[in-house]
Design brief:
mainly alpha
């Protein structure tokens, strides 16, 4: 089975963009797990809460949302484009892993952020927030990293599939 050149190129670009967008978000979660939260853990309650509140405010911007919402949208389009292709399982696995990371964010991290913003006592706010948020962030970092791995594998297999499906014209007889 072959696909036309334009559709094949679009398929590759969408899968590549899904992989990059997912990688950017996985990287953000990774940096929080490895540097931001351990660094903030050294701060007193007032500084910890003030900085996290500021981060939660500024991260709500179009650039972050483009990646955060673009990753599942692009992955979904890519999964649809991969139907019937041998690499489709990897793309679907990447979509599923990122969808779980997205769900963790919406179900746990965002409500914890909202609670942090509403709680007046910084000691209480930190106590309710820090351990739970850090734990759920690690979960979403692992899930989104797995999603990048799956999409990356899908991208490699897509390339191999495209290479195999290119039709080469038979050689012309020489006169």
């Amino acid at each position: 089975m072959t696909e036309n050149r334009t559709a094949g190129n679009a398929t590759g670009w969408v899968l590549g963009a899904a992989t990059v967008a997912t990688g950017l978000i996985a990287g953000a979660f990774y940096v929080f797990a490895c540097a931001v939260m351990p660094g903030l853990a050294r701060s007193d309650d007032r500084v910890f809460v003030a900085v996290m509140r500021n981060i939660n405010d500024v991260i709500q911007n179009p650039v972050f949302f483009l990646g955060f919402m673009g990753a599942p949208a692009l992955s979904a389009v890519s999964a649809w484009q991969a139907r019937g292709r041998p690499y489709r399982g990897w793309v679907w696995a990447g979509l599923a892993a990122y969808a779980l990371a997205f769900l963790v964010t919406v179900a746990f991290n965002i409500p914890l952020n909202d609670d942090l913003a509403r709680t007046a006592d910084v000691g209480v706010a930190r106590e309710r927030f820090e351990d739970a948020w850090v734990g759920w962030n690690v979960v979403r970092a692992v899930l989104s990293t797995a999603a990048v791995g799956c999409l990356g594998r899908g991208l490699i297999l897509y390339g191999a599939y495209r290479h195999r499906s290119v039709q080469v014209s038979p050689p012309r007889p020489t006169p």
